[in-house]
Each structure stands twice: as structure tokens, then as C-alpha cells.
Amino acid sequence: HLIAAGDLLAAANLLLVLGPRLLMDGQVKTLHGLLDQLGDVARTLTWCALLYGWCEYLAGRYSQADAWLDTMRDLAEEGFDHTAATSLRINLALARGDITPALAAARDVIATDQLPSHNCDLATATGSAFAWAGQADDARRILRYAAERGAAERFPAARVLALVHLAIVELDDGAAASAQRAACTAVDTAHDLGLGAYHGVAAAYAVRARTAVDPAHGHADALLAVSMGRLASTDLALGYVLAVCADTLMDLGDAAGVPLLAEAQSILGRCPDPGIAGRYLSRAASRHGVAERTSAPIAALVEHLTERELAVLRYLPVSQMSQRDIAAELYVSVNTVKTHCRAIYHKLGVVDRKAAVQAARDVHIL
Q1: What is the pLDDT of residues 203-232, one digit of tens each?
Q2: Distance between CA 177 and CA 180 in Å, rounded?
Q3: Most CB within 10 Å of its CB: which of 43, 54, 216, 341?
């Protein structure tokens, strides 16, 4: 009515409250339509720019979402709480399969104690970053908190995604029984909240399939997870679902798992830093004889890294930096960096850069 009356600024002010609720309820097209009707007014207000960013992210248009975050930053007045955009920034990084910036932002949220003063979606995003980075203890604590907050705030998507990521954590931690329980909880809660067909639940079905006692149930869940994951999942989530389901199907003697594993390799291969998804894929490929070499789980370093090796290691998560770039930063030759990288890979028990980054997280030196 305010838009119809031409009072666009008052209408935009209403979106401070209405916008997040529309996002929570999945009414993204409605929100995008309202923002479009506000025209230039929406393009000059920080909260509208952030809402536009969420709309573009949920539509899979990540570059446009980044552009709106830049617009929001440019519009922000002194004292503006930029943590309001942190959830979106984490989700964008995870969507691209780039764990390093997501984890850095999540750690900053915890260090500055931002969770209690912001909506539960920040807790879910933060916990998800720790989950994909293989930081099980932090992930469990934050995701359980996020699920509780999601229930209290009546934010079903954030609650369900927190539970889904708890299942991912348990499977990565090697606890099959716990992973099965967590996956069942996520799936059952999603159905209870009317989100049983939500593509974000695909990973929970994949985990439930992988830990199923009944082969028939595992097979059915794996096929369902694949079909759901293809609906609108990000590269990271889809690659993970395909890897887990391919592993499950191949164990069950279903040849359909072979092309799924190849597809997972293609999808996760284009992710800058796929975290535990890349590690799971590598191990699954090795188990089924479709990879010559793979990294094995390590509880400790084969040998301690030298100071120079640690200096090189700190640059490896920055996917945009080549070995030549790292050499320039450290004022050494490219050959020196290559030598250090070979030593790093050997000491971490891995064979490539992405695996080295995740292995370094696992032993808490990144």
C-alpha cells in the first residue's frame, strides 16, 4: 500500500523487519519484486542492498550477490554493524567451495562474540564453516546452538541446515551410529517443518544412506539424495552429496555410482578449497580404485614443518596465489617454494595443495 501511495522510503523502512521474515519463509521472489518496485530508493539504502544480495545468492547468482555486498559497504554509514552481512559472506564462500575465507569469517564471529546479538542464520552459517573445515568440536557446539535458536526464532531453514551439518560433522568424524542418528533427526525435522523436499536436506539423506544398516534403505536414500541435490545445491554441497552417494552405491554393487564419482571429481575439482568434501572424495576414489594416490587420515605430522615451510603453508589457502606469487611475497625463488611445497606435502601425508590445506587444519596448524 505504501508503494502504491508513492511513499517509497516508508515502504523501504518496513523491509527492515519484513525483508528478513520473507527470506526466512522462502518468499525470495516476493522480496525481490518489492525491492524492484522501490527502484532507486532500494539502491541507496544499506539494508536493501543486503536484501538484494541475499536474493541473488539464493538464486545462484553469486557475482551479483558480491556486487550488492560491495554496494552495501559503500552505502554504510559510520557505526553500521557489518556483522549483519557476515552470514551472507560465509554462505557465498561456502557456495563457491572456498573454505578459507568462510572459516576466517566464522572465527572472527566467535572471537568477537557476535552470535547472541544476531539472528540464528549467523550461527548456522558460522557452524557450517567449521563443519566443512573439519573442526568438529567447534562445529558441534555452534550448530547445536544454531538449531536451538532456529527453533526459538521460528526460522525453519536455519534450524534444518544446522541439523544437516551436524550429520556431516558426525560422518566426517567417523562416528557411523552418531551420523545415522543425526541424519535421521535432520530428515525428520525437515519433514515436520514442511521442508522434506528442500534441496538443503540432500546431504542428510546422503549421510543416512552411507550409514544405513539395511542396504535397500541405503540405496533408496542415496538415489533420493542425488535427485534432491541436483535441484539447486551449491558446488560444495552437490559435490559432497555425489561423492558420498557414489561411495555408497559402489559399495552396494550399483554401477551407477561410477559416473557419480566422476561428476563429483569434476565439481569439487573446480572448488578453490573444498575442505572435508575434497578429502572424502579423495578417499572414496582411492577405495574404489579410481585414483592412483590419495591422502590418508593423519593424527599427527609425519615430521614437524620448518619455519620456512610454515611460512609457505600459510599462503596455500589463498587460492588466487600461484607458487610464483608466493615466491614474490617471501622474496625467494619459485624453485625454493616448489621445494618447500614438496616437503609440506610429504610431512602432511598428502599429494596436492588442496589436500595439504585441509590436512593442516586437521592437525591445527592452519
Answers
A1: 999 999 999 999 999 999 999 999 999 987
A2: 5
A3: 54
For the entire predicted model, the pTM comes to 0.84
CA 137 to the chain's CA centroid:
17
pLDDT at residue 312, as a whole number: 86
Q: Is-contact 350 311, C-beta < 8 A?
A: no
pLDDT digits (tens, 9 = 90+) for 239-297: 999 999 999 999 999 999 999 999 999 999 899 999 999 999 998 998 898 764 444 44
Task: Find the DSSP H helices in the chain.
Answer: 8-24, 28-38, 46-58, 62-75, 86-95, 99-111, 120-132, 136-152, 156-172, 176-192, 202-210, 215-232, 235-251, 257-269, 276-287, 307-313, 323-330, 334-348, 353-362
**Collapsed DSSP state (helix, strand, coil) of residue 209:** helix
3-state secondary structure of 155: coil
Inter-CA distances, 116 with 39, 109, 358, Å: 34, 10, 29
| H helical segments located in 297-362 | 307-313, 323-330, 334-348, 353-362
Beta bridge partners of 244: none
The DSSP call for residue 305 is P
| Residue whose C-alpha is closest to residue 238's, from 211, 216, 205, 214 | 205
**d(Cα 38, Cα 16) in Å, to the nearest integer?**
14
Q: Which residues of 44-64 are buried (b: 16+ CB within 10 A; e: fewer)?
A: ebbbbbbbbbbbbbbeeebee
